[in-house]
Every structure is written in C-alpha cells, then in structure tokens.
Amino acid sequence: MITFLFILHGLFAVALLGAVTHQALSVWWPVRAGNANFMARFRAVKAANYVNAIIVLFLITFLLGSIVYPAYRIGARVFMENLRMSATVGAFEMKEHLITFSLGLLPAYWYFWREPLRPEHAMTRKMMTLLLAIFIWSAFLVGHVLNNIRGV
Amino acid sequence: MGLSRAFPAFSAAFCVIYLSSMYFHPNLTLFTYSPRLGQWFAGVPDLGRGAPGMYWYSWLVTGLIAGLAAGAVALALPENLRNKVWSGWTWVVPVVLTVILAYIERTWFGFK
C-alpha cells in the first residue's frame, strides 16, 4: 500500500511540476507576438488559469507525502544515517521545510492571483510563483535522488 | 473579499512560526508521532533507543494555529491600516526564512 501511495505521490508531483513550470515561465518570460516555436507555446498560457490546479495538485501531493513520510523515517532515512550520508539526509530535511513553507504560502498565493488581477500586486504574484516553482522543483529533485538511493 | 483578506497574514505567520517551532524544538512541539510504534503522544516523550519521534506534524499544527491567529488580527485591523502593509512581505518573509533555514541546516552539509 505504501508503495502504491508513494508512486501516486510521484505522479501528482510530476503533474504539479508541469503546472507550476508553465505558470512561472508564462509570467517571467512572456511570449512576444510572432513566436511560434515549442518554448513559446509552452509559455503562451494564461497564468491565472493554473492557480486552482496548482493548489489542488499541491495539496494532494502534500497529503500523499505526509502519509508515506513515516515509512521514509524508519526505512530509507535510517539506512542513509547508517551509511553516514549526512548531506543526503540534510537535503531531505530542507525539502521537508521548503515544502511546508509552500503549503503556508498557498492562501496568499491564491489571494494575489484571484481575478480580477490587481496591477499593484503584479510583482508579488511573480515572486510568489517563482518561489513556489523553486521550492517544488527542489523538492522533486531531492525526492527523486533519495528514492534512487533508497526507496520507501 | 471577506475572509480572504486574512490570507497574506496567515501565510507569513504560518511560515515564521513553523520555522520557529522547528528551531526551538521541543519548546513549541505539541505532540509526537512514533512511526515505529504507530502511535501519537502528547508533548515530546522519551521513546527509547531506536524509536525515532516525528515532530513535523506538530510543527505544522503550531504553524496553522499561529496563522489563524495572525489572520484574525489582520481581519480586526481597520481597512486603511491593512492597505498600508506592503504585499511584498508575503514573498520577502519566505525568502528570508529560507536563508535562515539554510543556516540552521548547514551542519548536515559539513559546515560548522
């Protein structure tokens, strides 16, 4: 059961990663008229449309992660501690806290992205989206590497 | 706008108190989960050797309580005062907290 939930956690994380990357690129690297290559199309999305999807995907991924976390704590982490893989354990600690920051930021993220978008909050929206993207990308990469070292 | 006016204050307070709970552990830790025993305990009990305690769930709840309290305060503030607060604090706070977090966790990576 834990393995099934862990795979689900990973699949939802991939979907979340895609959504937040679309949004972050669309607000930080907007498309200019005439661009029609793959990257331009990737960025040519309405960023506000991604907000609810990102929040829902984040909450599901977070919930699944918190369910499988105890299995990591008594399995993979003990294994890595025994091998004195201090930086690896530390990377997971960072992931844990950055993702919790992200959870806390979701209400404000939703608030500043709700329509109609207020122009005076444009920079706040961009920065919050960037932060979420960085936190989610780092958590994904750490989780992926740790799972390669020792799965739950 | 209703209750959503409280959201920015909630977010900032949640992150600050969550990190404080972690840093000042066990002072703000309300309960412990023992993954080996599969049981929850109030406070921070001595679980014995080889039975690690998980405090993260408690830190989440502590952050949630602080966030709700900060949100309630934000709702109670007069609108003109609330509008004077710069919205950028909602991203500046987590950026500063991330730097503090990296400093707290530096020993895992071999830094003294």
Would you write up a description of this structure?
Chain A is mainly α and 152 residues long. Helix content of chain A is 79%, strand content 0%. Chain A has one domain. Chain A contains six helices and no strands. In chain A, helix 3 crosses helix 4 (76-82), helix 3 (51-74) packs antiparallel against helix 5 (86-113) and helix 5 runs antiparallel to helix 6. The radius of gyration of chain A is 17 Å and the shape is elongated. Chain B has 112 residues and is mainly alpha-helical. Chain B has one domain. Chain B contains four helices and two strands, in the order αββααα. Chain B has a two-stranded antiparallel ribbon with strand order 1-2. Chain B starts with 6 loop residues before the first helix and ends in an 8-residue tail after the last helix. Chain A binds chain B through residues 66, 69-71, 73-74, 78, 86-87, 89-91, 93-94, 96-98, 100-101, 103-112, 114, 120-121, 123-124, 127-128, 131, and chain B through 4-5, 7-8, 10-12, 14-15, 18-19, 22, 33, 35-36, 38, 52, 54, 56-57, 59-60, 63, 67, 87-88, 90-91, 94-95, 97-98, 101-102, 105, 107-110.
In terms of topology, how is this protein built?
The complex is a heterodimer of chains A (152) and B (112).
Chain A lengths: L1 H27 L9 H6 L7 H24 L1 H7 L3 H28 L8 H28 L3
Helix pairs in contact in A: 1-3, 1-6, 3-4, 3-5, 5-6
Chain B lengths: L6 H17 L7 E4 L4 E4 L13 H21 L2 H6 L4 H16 L8
Antiparallel strand pairs in B: 1-2
Helix pairs in contact in B: 1-2, 1-4
